[in-house]
Design goal:
- The chain is mostly helical.
- It has two domains: 32 residues; 29 residues, no CATH class.
- Helix content is 84%, strand content 0%.
- It starts with a helix and ends with a helix.
Length: 63
């Protein structure tokens, strides 16, 4: 009786952990698209090149 309760607890614990990882993976794979990542990398390289005129880059280059 004690062994089955312990086994059931472990099964429940690992099952909920695996389910939460699956949900997290699905949410991340849905939100992080490949095109989104590549466009944000292009924007980042454009901002760090010093040719950008946005206010944030102006503040960074002044300081």
């Amino acid at each position: 009786m004690i062994i089955t309760k312990k086994y059931r607890f472990h099964l429940l614990m690992y099952g909920s952990l695996a389910l939460s990882f699956l949900v997290l993976y699905l949410v991340l794979s849905r939100t992080i698209d490949l095109n989104l990542v590549s466009s944000s990398l292009e924007q980042l390289s454009f901002h760090s090149s010093g040719t950008c005129q946005c206010p944030l880059c102006q503040v960074i280059t002044i300081s």
